[in-house]
Fold this protein.
Amino acid sequence: QVQLVESGGGSVQAGGSLRLSCAASGYTDSNYCMGWYRQAPGKEREGVAAIGGDGITSYADSVKGRFTISKDNGKNTLYLQMNNLKPEDTAMYYCAADPGRNPAYCRLSIRSPNIYTLNYWGKGTLVTISS
């Protein structure tokens, strides 16, 4: 079973940067769908960025050009570099993974995360951006 532990959240001012990390364990094949999702209070969960088993990345329009997802297969760790943060980026950020999902499904999980869901989730890390 895949286990995911996020870290790196915090409070920064608008325009600042944060890097989130997600340490994965319990699965030896690193070529599977992994992604970042977020949920703000009173709002639905939304996809932020994902990387499929083919290495292709997908981003929500709201974060394109500001966020970068990457993966270190040797360390089984997923990252999300977040630059030029805005108050509307404030949310709980979750890491998710699913060894059984193909790259197309992985990309769709960003567009419609409540339909194309992944099986394994971390507990989240809170990101707060002040104006």
Summary: The CA atoms of residues 96 and 121 lie 4 Å apart. Helices lie at 103-111. The first helix runs from residue 103 to 111. The chain has a mean pLDDT of 94.
